[in-house]
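Protein in question kept underneath.
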Amino acid sequence: MRKTKLEFFLFLVLFAACAPAAEPNMPQAAHTETAPTAPASPTATVTPTNPSADIITVTEDTRMDPEDWMEWPIIPEVSATTRAIYREGLAMGKNPQAFSKVGDCQNLKEYFLGRFDHLDLYEYEWDITPYVDTIEHFTGNFDRDGQAAKFGFTAASPLSQLQADPEVCLPGETPLECELRMHQPTFVIISLEFPFNGRTPQLYTTYIRQIIDYTISQGAVPILATKADNVEGDHAINRAIAALAYEYDIPLWNWWRAAQPLGDHGIDPYRDGFHISQQAWAERSKTCLMVLDHLWKELREE
């Protein structure tokens, strides 16, 4: 793969960056609307907004247990709940050619997905041909961060009004609210770190649950991502992410599993045990593109 001086510079920037921002207290909702809770199990009946649409009922649960998250596939299947959320979003007027990111420094365009908006500048060691139509469909989204993916973001940051950019966001908006209002996506990739000095998986779950609830209320499909690291020591965060994906019956991109064949399992051995290696950058973008490709092609006939 051809590398530029810019990429080398960005590597040095990432090496020194990504210090977490101060974590706020539990954020309060900035607006009066209440985000509805997604179906708690796949046996729930989901009634879309469109009254002429058929009611979707899932009667059999064949999903893997969250405790077995390490064995979950890298690329998720499309559930009935995902189809219902996507259809709801289209009925609300969401942009089927838009996706957003809710993430920390490892999700910024310089290192994650950005090069797919510049196919003429890069060469790939894998066959990108089957995914060109997906890249063309989502053109303009890859080399974009939006308002909910920033250096230093933790699981709490997208929910804090203090973290919103006052130059572009409305008074009282959180970064999450601002991004979904401005971009109107049908998919939202959620990948957030969580400094583990005394904090708990339960608190992480509380924050991510709020992000999921609001995302679904805005007619966008949440795509949860596991992480390659295990800074907490017992994989509690990845287990919590899988439990939420199971509870809400929404897609989980198992980046942890994709990173396992890489050197040092995708973790930069010279850093802090959290940041991924330069080799892993390309693999992470590749597998996320595959997830978007699969979901979009399964749902585009809705």
Summary: The chain has one domain: 68-299. The mean pLDDT is 85. The two ends are 37 Å apart (CA to CA).
